[in-house]
Sequence to fold (473 residues):
Amino acid sequence: MASPGQRILAGVSGGADSVCLLFMLLEYAARFSVQPAAVHVNHGLREDAGEDAEFVRKLCERVQVPFFLREVDVRELAAREKRSLEEAGRILRYRVFEETAREFGADRIAVAHNLNDRAETMLFHLFRGSGVRGLCSIPPVREKIIRPVMCLERNEIEAYLHIRGIPYRTDSTNDEDDYTRNRIRHHLLPAAKQEVSPQALSHMCAAADDLAQLEEYLGMQTAAAEKACVRSLPGSPGGICVSVEEMLRFHPAIQKRLLLALLKRLAPGGKDIARVHVEAALSLFEKEGNRQVDLPFGIRGVRSYGNVFLGREQPRQGKDPGKLFRKVDLAPEEPERPITYDLNGCQAQIRIFFAEKEGKIPENEYTKWFDCDKIIKSPVFRFREKGDYLSLSDGRGGIIHKSLKEYMIQEKIPREDRDRILVLAEDDHVLWLVGWRISEYYKVSGNTKRVLEAKLTEEPETGETEEKHGGAY
Fold:
């Protein structure tokens, strides 16, 4: 969890668990020269919250540990984002931990979850309908977050503090049954220890460790399945294309995991995708024939030509998709600086550079290089139009032209999606049918002097791009 010489920031509420954590870190510091500090988050939800903060401040002063006090408005976040107070508090708490860790220069953030917390969370997730990932419960280590007292039951923690004569605060809300977790804590877990096995909690946590290893393995298998049968289509309502034949090669458990991951990727915030939605999407693979299913958040699954397309309808400018144009500047003031163009629910970054500076052509499906000197007029990102064509290899070293419509039919692109897939085109000559292929004529060769790089990315939720060209031309 930590190495000698590191700085460790501990979240200390003043309760038994976090006070125990602080004193264990002090013991560890005396032996291995780690540097502990404490942060207390005042959520402003209880009248005596200020007393908790003052208790922790004095405790840290007595043991000579740096102390940070932070105040957050949990009710405001819960109301604004329509979250429970418990969830809003957790979000703000970890946000404060991260910010304070940067200020203190901490290598690790220690929080005081114990064995009971892990067992409670495991049951909570099970009852709410979780899969393997949720049953792993709280991990002992997650990136910078460490949980050093995860191995201890709550009664062991309280006994340790009592024997050492160390004071702590008691949160009165922990004794109430208003929260689901409290009811699990007060009724289910004691019954399990008394009626089933005194070691019930430790057995549950051992199972959680086994499930965590299983989850890691299944994650690797799911990633392999995605690589084998999934291709994304930025800017298109069929945002993700899944090969039915390839998908059916995998075990149903992997199919379900992959579909859950894909649907969460399409859902705002990755939330509210349930087992029933995964089963509905899975039905597209199990039964032959072209059809579709409608899912939450405007997500639609369409089976066509041996593929299943998953995506959300994207807002477009006007009723005619052909009216969406983004002209690429071939003579920017700073050619090698990427310019970002807003597209149909995604973004394109364009830069121009000399070929000898970067020799290896990228193999990324959504990063393409073009011979800039062969492009005479400024190309545009748009949707297909009548007369569009691609240049393809004839297999004998020559080039032939094929209409874009004919190519789409050949590649079995569903009719309903053809007008909504982005193209980068110079007049009616298509440089790139996004998500499919580029034109042979514009490919980079050994004679290329200047390269135009086009990179498509999903629209970021926050943050500014270097430069935006958002107007329609």
Remarks:
- The radius of gyration is 28 Å.
